[in-house]
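Re: [ENG-882] Designed sequences occasionally contain unexpected residues at chain ends

Forwarding the minimal case from QA. Structure tokens:
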């Protein structure tokens, strides 16, 4: 069977690799290349964590991904997963979301600790834990090298016999009446099955089937300089952290001799991933500065070293989309990472490859029909 996968980001790259490992002939296509700066999978780092609240499929998926990341690192003799731990600070009134997360972590056998405020303060005195009564710590989670790992997946795919083409798809895809893909190099590619994992471009490529069920939103990311000679805010002395205080902010301590990363998970404005100019918003920068001064007092007035505009490929419920095209069962649609998809690339790619090759049904929670219920 010949499968064409369009999109070499976290979802498409891993799907192509597992399709190839399952014996399919696979052609992978991407417009600007794996981990490029326009893609949702671009940038330097991404968090990998399994704390997701109750009644959801993502804790189990993260557990599988953690195993697959480690397995492939051993195979490639390279490190992309940095297990510096992830700290989730409890917030709100009843803490039902965090309590539900603990139960899900137990069920998925994810190592974790429930830490009291006193334990938090003792362990990380460089953090001001005001308003945080307790926290969840995942010692074996951490962060991933995003751009580098996307490129490594495609390199492995090619080394294992896959074919990679850098080109754009130039045609109407939503009619599903086409017989082959028309590419920007004037070639045509015919396959038995097609997987479209085109990130923030899914809505424009499939304006009727996907439409605004996936929208690109502008997300600003900042890197601040840590105090001179002070290693308290570097990896090894501080975990990845997430905090629901007021807004949902998260960050990654200094690594790779870069700055202290902080981002606001609040959904930004609709953004054009192709033509949008990537200039950060001054109000978002102000919010990040105020937050750092509050939660990490020693970093008050820290200088801004770098800034970056990324985007989420956002669905209405922040869940993924894994679905056959309603007009053609040989066409699969894969997307909606919604800002948390990168970590799940290996496990999702493994599942989707099995669905495509063995005609398995997608999980109900990821089907398009959930939006019309």
């Amino acid at each position: 069977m010949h499968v064409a996968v369009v999109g070499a980001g976290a979802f498409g790259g891993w799907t192509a690799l597992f399709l190839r490992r399952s014996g399919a002939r696979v052609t992978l296509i991407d417009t600007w290349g794996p981990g490029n700066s326009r893609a949702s999978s671009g940038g330097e780092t991404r968090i990998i964590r399994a704390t997701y609240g109750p009644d959801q499929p993502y804790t189990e998926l993260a557990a599988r991904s953690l195993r697959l990341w480690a397995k492939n690192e051993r195979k490639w003799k390279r490190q992309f997963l940095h297990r510096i731990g992830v700290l989730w600070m409890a917030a709100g009134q009843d803490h039902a979301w965090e309590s539900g997360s603990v139960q899900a972590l137990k069920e998925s056998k994810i190592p974790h600790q429930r830490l009291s405020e006193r334990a938090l303060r003792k362990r990380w005195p460089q953090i001001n834990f005001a308003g945080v009564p307790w926290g969840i710590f995942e010692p074996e989670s951490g962060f991933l090298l995003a751009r580098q790992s996307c490129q490594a997946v495609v390199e492995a795919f090619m080394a294992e016999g896959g074919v990679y083409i850098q080109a754009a798809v130039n045609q109407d895809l939503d009619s599903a009446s086409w017989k082959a893909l028309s590419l920007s190099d004037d070639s045509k590619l015919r396959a038995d099955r097609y997987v479209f994992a085109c990130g923030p471009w899914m809505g424009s490529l499939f304006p009727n089937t996907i439409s605004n069920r996936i929208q690109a939103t502008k997300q600003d990311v900042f890197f601040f300089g840590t105090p001179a000679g002070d290693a308290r805010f570097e990896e090894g002395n501080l975990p990845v952290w997430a905090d629901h205080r007021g807004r949902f902010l998260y960050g990654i301590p200094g690594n790779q001799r870069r700055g202290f990363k902080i981002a606001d998970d609040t959904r930004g404005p609709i953004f054009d991933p192709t033509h949008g100019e990537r200039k950060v918003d001054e109000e978002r920068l102000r919010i990040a500065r105020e937050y750092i001064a509050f939660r990490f007092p020693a970093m008050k007035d820290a200088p801004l070293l770098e800034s970056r505009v990324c985007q989420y490929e956002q669905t209405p419920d922040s869940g993924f989309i894994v679905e056959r095209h309603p007009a053609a069962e040989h066409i699969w649609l894969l997307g909606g990472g919604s800002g948390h998809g990168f970590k799940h690339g290996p496990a999702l790619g493994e599942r989707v490859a099995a669905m495509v090759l063995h005609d398995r049904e997608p999980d109900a929670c990821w089907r398009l029909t959930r939006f019309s219920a």
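QA comment: On inspection the terminal residues look reasonable. The two ends are 35 Å apart (CA to CA). Proposing we downgrade this to a documentation issue.
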